[in-house]
Amino acid sequence: MTDLSSYEGTGEAQFGDYVALLKPRVMSLVVFTALVGLLVAPVHVHPVVALASILFIALGAGASGALNMWWDADIDQKMRRTRSRPIPAGRVAPGEALGLGLALSGIAVVMLGLAANLLAAGLLAFTIFFYAVVYSMWLKRLTPQNIVIGGAAGAFPPMIGWVCATGSVSVEAVLMFLIIFMWTPPHFWALALFLKGDYHNAGVPMLTVTHGRKATRAHILAYTLALAPVAVGAAFTSIGGPVYLAVALALNGWFILGAVRIWRRDEAMAEADSYAVEKAFFRFSLYYMFLHFVAFLVEAALKTQGLGGW
């Protein structure tokens, strides 16, 4: 991290700039997967408790985003897709982002403990710590495995949602965690392929920088192949069923096909069509994650009607 004195705020920050610090797009995925984890759990949760739990999980996710932006201001300034963020753009001072992140972290963890249970609060606290410290401050600038290990932070929300409902961790919660955990590397490596020099310019040891794009393509295929049995296997647990199985088979078949297409390409082919295949794979990866969790919700809804399950 560079000297933060070079990122003094201008005092012209708008409300939207503080919202941007919370990474609302990332927060929306966190909220959705946490809500699914809570709703598919085999325990009825009072609507007020459920709403409060999701609100505080969202605040925890936002806190992580603010702390990440505070620490990564120097990197963000060097990358095209992040240089307009509030801190590198000079609209918000680093100290403001740090204060916001720490305050929201404390509020989110304490209130989730009061609204749900201490285990859920502990998992939320660990998730914030993992993202802000283990990933942002340590792994991101140290190893090309940064996104592999750091991806755990984004994989915890459905487990936290499940624990809010049940007070314990189960096989189903672990499988939801693993689906996101193993999906994260191919998702972000596809992005790194067509962002080209961004990570190199920022000095981030992304796999494309340290091992090259050919190796990255092979890693995308390997992780996609490893992800498929985990995602499909969830169909045979209490949160799965025939609807989920059909969706998982279709999505994973298409995901593997996309990974194979990426693996077969070289840079000349990618340059010729402006990384069209890589961009399509990245876009589909978003639908891949969303539709798996929608399928979990559908199975839960069917089971309440006595229609789901095996």
Describe the structure.
By secondary structure, the protein is mostly helical. It is flat and about 55 Å long. It has helices at residues 15-21, 24-39, 47-71, 73-78, 94-115, 118-138, 146-150, 152-155, 157-166, 171-195, 198-202, 207-210, 212-233, 242-264, 267-272, 276-304. Helix content is 74%, strand content 0%. Helix 2 runs antiparallel to helix 3, helix 2 (24-39) packs parallel to helix 16 and helix 3 packs parallel to helix 6 (118-138). The N and C termini lie far apart (52 Å).
Total strand count, please? Answer: 0
Oligomer: single chain
- What's the CATH superfamily of the largest domain, by name? UbiA prenyltransferase
Please compute the radius of gyration using only Cα atoms: 20 Å
What structural category arises from helix and sheet content? mainly alpha
Number of domains: 2
Q: With helices defined by DSSP (H or I, 4 residues minimum), what is the helix count?
A: 16
CATH-scheme architecture of the largest domain: Orthogonal Bundle
Low-confidence stretches: none
Mean pLDDT: 93
Q: H/E order of the elements?
A: HHHHHHHHHHHHHHHH
Largest sheet: none
Helical amount among residues, as a percent range? over 70%
Q: Strand portion, in percent?
A: under 5%
CATH topology of the largest domain, which one? Tetracycline Repressor, domain 2
- The first-level CATH class of the largest domain is given as Mainly Alpha
| First-residue to last-residue Cα separation | 52 Å
- The shape is flat
Family: Belongs to the UbiA prenyltransferase family. Protoheme IX farnesyltransferase subfamily.
Function: Converts heme B (protoheme IX) to heme O by substitution of the vinyl group on carbon 2 of heme B porphyrin ring with a hydroxyethyl farnesyl side group.
Keywords: Cell membrane, Heme biosynthesis, Membrane, Transferase, Transmembrane, Transmembrane helix
Catalytic activity: heme b + (2E,6E)-farnesyl diphosphate + H2O = Fe(II)-heme o + diphosphate
